[in-house]
Write a structure and sequence with these properties.
Blueprint: H1 9-20, H2 22-25, E1 40-43, E2 46-49, H3 61-79, H4 84-95, E3 104-106, E4 109-111
Antiparallel strand pairs: 1-2, 3-4
């Protein structure tokens, strides 16, 4: 007979956070519109459109501006969650405990990591 294994407090917290944010997901969010380019690649005789290729250039000023708009939207959404700080504190409390790694050998010495 197999026993049910509890997933842990972190998984439960994430699931509860997902369920609790459902009302926020129902809101209309206005995402920034990326431009579409006329980029097409041909692979083995098949034309594949790639209109967002310009976003791959992470040093581009245009890409940086689009990412800034996305970040502004994301952080404004996250700031509206009233219990976000409580979740953060709870996760820090659950994850901030003493930990030791398995010992390993380097030459004639044994080492381990400790938090």
């Amino acid at each position: 007979m197999r026993r049910f294994r509890f997933a842990g407090p972190v998984v439960v917290t994430v699931v509860l956070l997902t369920i609790a944010t459902a009302p926020f997901n129902a809101q209309q969010v206005q995402y920034p519109k990326p431009r579409k380019a006329d980029q097409t690649d041909t692979y083995f005789g098949v034309s594949v459109p790639d209109p967002y290729r310009w976003l791959e250039d992470d040093h581009s000023a245009e890409t940086a501006e689009w990412v800034a708009q996305e970040n502004k939207l994301t952080f404004s959404y996250l700031a509206r969650i009233p219990y976000r700080e409580q979740v953060k504190q709870r996760l820090e409390k659950l994850l901030n405990y003493s930990r030791y790694s398995a010992p390993f050998r380097r030459g004639e010495y044994f080492f381990f990591f400790k938090k």
